[in-house]
């Protein structure tokens, strides 16, 4: 029996999320400390961390359009997984800023393809099987959690450069799960034209759909919310380890904290569909944005390590909501032909422009005022996110945004 039939598409999707986020969990929590260990200033560390979202701004729309135009979701997912893993192996061997920036950019270019392709395949499974997206995505949180804990303990014993081969191993193994997954297919809303590969056959229609999407007020405010809130969440992944270590915490403690952060997302993702059916996803995003802003102001206070660890439920109530709801809402607003493109656009806004801004600004703030001041800055940015999300609530049509229930 071939390996492609040993796992159902749903099981393979869960394992794919697990391995992808295991790679991320092995690398990102300790990456800033690796850079600091090289003797680099906070400003340079911030710029190096910003390399990942800079590439993320350029590449996700390219990856998404390639997938939507040529239906290459699965082959491109395989290529980006393997290539990102191989690029990670070059980072600990890089000497000098030029090589460090180049190696980080190469890794980022390929990793930026993971989200649009993986989420597009996940949403295809959701459509075919009537399965909840959050129940697939939560396995990413589990993978991130376990990898963070194990890597923190291992790095304390064998050194921070270990994070790069661990990332590479998880990324390359994840590519083995791609065969057997369903390729996303174009679909039409009720009353639309018959199904067919119009996105692949008629590029002008794809361009017209893209133009409509980028002038939809609710979608534009969703991008603004992603910039502010998702950008701040990404920056927390960069700078929390520095904040925690300055407060007196250890590498093992960093791993434990990120474990609890990730696990706190799981119950949120298990119930997010029912909450969306009852309150609408837009209202959930507003609540998540408000809690995120309060969370950053809380971290700006002089807290001991144990209290930073104890704050983990706030992570699930902020990150868990945004990671589960934003892809679903972006996909629904995009229509049948631009799912990957819409997912890429929200990724660019949050993990691209938002993360660039917060990483670069955070590095400068780190040099001048220390890590606590970074969280004052993130809190102020979070207030803007609350305002943007409130506009989403106001402008989004209820039938489009109520998770699974339609008016009438």
- Give the end-to-end Cα distance, rounded to a whole number of Å: 48 Å
Q: List unreliable stretches of 5+ residues.
A: 189-201, 399-408
Question: Quick one: CATH class?
Answer: Mainly Alpha
Find the structural class using helix and strand composition: mainly alpha
Q: What is the chain-wise order of helices and strands?
A: HHHHHHHHHHHHHHHHHH
Q: Care to count the β-strands?
A: 0
Overall 3D shape = globular
Task: Just name the CATH architecture.
Answer: Up-down Bundle
Portion of residues in beta strands equals: under 5%
CATH superfamily: MFS general substrate transporter like domains
* Number of domains as seen in the coordinates: 1
The level of helicity is: over 70%
Number of helical runs? 18
The radius of gyration computed from the alpha-carbon positions, rounded to a whole number of angstroms, is 20 Å
Average of pLDDT: 85
Largest sheet: none
